[in-house]
Amino acid sequence: MNPPLQTTLPDGRRRHFHHGPIDLVIEAFGAPPEVALAYGQAWQRFQTVLEELVAELPRLRQPRGTPLVGPVAQAMAQACRPHGGVFVTPMAAVAGAVADAVLAALVRGREVERAYVNNGGDIALYLSPGTSFKTGLVNLADAPSMDAYTRIGAECAVRGIATSGWQGRSLSLGIAESVTVLARNAAAADVAATLIANAVDAEDDAIKRLPAREIDADSDLGDQLVTVAVGTLSPVSIECALRRGENAARAMAARGLIEGAHLTLKSETRIVGVSQRLEEVA
Question: What is the pLDDT of residue 149?
């Protein structure tokens, strides 16, 4: 395994941490000496994360209930625990949990105003009183543009953002182009986005699926059918799929598991939860 790498991005502010499949973009705001110390703390924590996860990888690919040891692994399992009744493994929370862990190390004992750790679109946030972040939402990865935005203030509960969909980095059981979730931490948002994206689904001949193992032999989804292509859908299929995803998101919001969600399928969108924080771009 190659060693972890750290670089400063061309803007001179953000840091890029890379190790195996993990790519983090990190930025902290505040007095330069405090920010420098914060980056040092984040880097020290980051260097061991992948090794910790690899050591427990077989158990992380098993459904809930498997004993886990490392703090990131345990946070992954904790994020999945409330979602009883559906198949999910701790791997559904891996990107968010890593972002949460590195952010916690970054701000520990430091006086920074704001900070974020972006792990491929799954984002952990730190906000001191009176501060906020404005974040754009992109619906289509192959045609990126800001389709909606959210402004998150320190007074609200949101400290994690995650996005999932069948065209993303992970395999999906559903057909959503994107599902972006706001939650109390990035691990919780990560799991919820995965499960809501799975729920955005319909029966339509335009949808092509294959067993997960045929795409990734190590997938935690095993022989479950995952989406590999979505052609032209009927209006009925689009409405049905979005309704299923919306119902799943509303159920999570009612239980306090998420603060809001933005669902997209074939240029149709649904907003659930805290609508004033998830707004369409005119």
Answer: 73
